[in-house]
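Many introductory courses stop at the sequence. We go one step further.
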Amino acid sequence: MAQQDAQNGVSENVAAVSFVAVKPQLLVEAPKANDAVQFYKAAFAAEEVGRTLNPKRKAEHELPLILSAELKIAGSSFLVADIVGDSALPAKTGGNAVVLCLETEDVEGAIAKAVSAGAVAEGEVAESEGACGGGRVGKVKDPYGFVWSFCSPGKKCADAEA
């Protein structure tokens, strides 16, 4: 067991750490996080479950900057936040990208709804041989530069292996 823990990066002298959730964070150009939240609600029927405003934002500004807004789509949470200065913005490199995937029975309908809310369709809907058996896949790019992939449920992993 100790040898396996060492291979997995766990030291014998360090207590085990568990996580309760993974919440991707979408950083958008300030002050567009509120617009992004409204877009995700319109395009993907996202539910806003919480919001924290930036306490350093001066009262004379019309819209306070969003420190973090938590949204849920299909039971999964993600955060949307305004980028304030360079501190929150990760270094841009050619190899990093974020693609958010939403599983749906109606790929074309999901794309149409997102496009009507302001997204741009990326390519054609196609059959894919992706992980676990594939299915229909289509993509949109939202007004904030994030790519959203819509995929129909494919064959289950166990079915694909049988």
